[in-house]
Specification:
Elements (H helix, E strand, L loop, with lengths): L2 H24 L3 H28 L28 H17 L3 E5 L3 H8 L4 E6 L10 E5 L12 E7 L18 H12 E13 L3 E3 L3 E3 L2 H7 L3 E9 L5 E2 L4 H5 L4 E9 L2
Parallel strand pairs: 1-2, 1-4, 2-3, 4-5
Antiparallel strand pairs: 5-10, 6-7, 8-9, 8-10
Length: 272
């Protein structure tokens, strides 16, 4: 294939991709929906066959089939073994491993995923969780403080272990009830720096790649922009989740700069 043909194919793919992405963001994913419909359709005869076998072989009266309690999930056999949201899986695993290996027993988190990172660390760590929205969770090692990342409920230089994963990119876009402010992410970074204790560590996960705002979902930052946001802190480690959903430990900024929508994992330390 000639260079001109490759260029033409690339342009055609982009022309098809852009309308698809725009439609998916505002309405629904047509490819995802068509896949679901296809899998559901081919699962129906399997479901009916399995139901007939079960009903014929089952001798337990209390567990007999009833239309009232019928569920249809046979399409699961055509899906992958488990759902994996790549950024959150690797990011939460990275951060939880950091805390576990460091022997952290008291930690503060702002707005990270409760059914991911928070659940990972509760077995070995007392956690104070801060979010602008209310949360009811009854667990011995868990405490909740409702508050904003723009006005943290802590004194200066008091938090020794701190994290916020896939959060600051949203601040100032109004998505979660916070005020619209183009400088929201930078103000959040200053507040996190303020409460972090000298010698304390901050674990940060943030979209990294081609710098832009995807209103009102999130921002994507160049790695240097994130470093500048936390100019008062020292970078200890930069790891990166690529567009191919691979985790690179101790990555270079070059890979991040070339990415469209990766995830930068920053470990910062406050000097002193």
């Amino acid at each position: 294939m000639t260079t001109e043909s490759l260029t033409l194919n690339k342009r055609m793919r982009r022309k098809l991709r852009d309308p698809y992405l725009f439609f998916s963001r505002f309405f629904f994913d047509p490819i995802g929906l068509s896949t679901r419909v296809f899998n559901t359709t081919r699962a129906i005869p399997v479901y009916l066959g399995n139901l007939a076998k079960y009903s014929k072989q089952n001798g337990r009266r209390s567990l007999r089939f009833s239309v009232r309690d019928a569920w249809f999930h046979t399409y699961d056999r055509f899906a992958a073994a488990g759902s994996l949201t790549a950024h959150y899986f690797w990011q939460d695993l990275w951060a939880a491993t950091k805390l576990h290996d460091a022997g952290v027993t008291h930690h503060v988190d702002v707005g990270s995923r409760v059914d991911g990172f928070i659940a990972h660390i509760l077995p070995f760590c007392d956690l104070t969780y801060v979010d602008i929205r209310p949360l009811e969770l009854n667990w011995p090692r868990f405490s909740f403080r409702q508050g904003s990342i723009l006005a943290m409920p802590f004194e200066d230089d008091t938090v020794a272990s701190l994290s916020t994963l896939h959060v600051i990119e949203h601040i100032g876009l109004g998505r979660y009830g916070d005020p619209v402010d183009p400088d929201g992410s930078w103000k959040a970074a200053r507040e996190l720096t303020r409460v972090l204790a000298p010698g304390g560590r901050l674990l940060l996960g943030v979209p990294t790649g081609r710098e832009r705002v995807c209103f009102d979902a999130h921002r994507v930052f160049a790695p240097e922009t994130t470093i500048d946001m936390f100019a008062g802190l020292e970078l200890v480690e930069f790891s990166f989740i690529t567009d191919r959903n691979e985790l690179i430990r101790n990555a270079s900024f070059d890979e991040a700069r070339r990415s469209e929508y990766g995830c930068g994992l920053f470990e910062f330390r406050k000097r002193g």
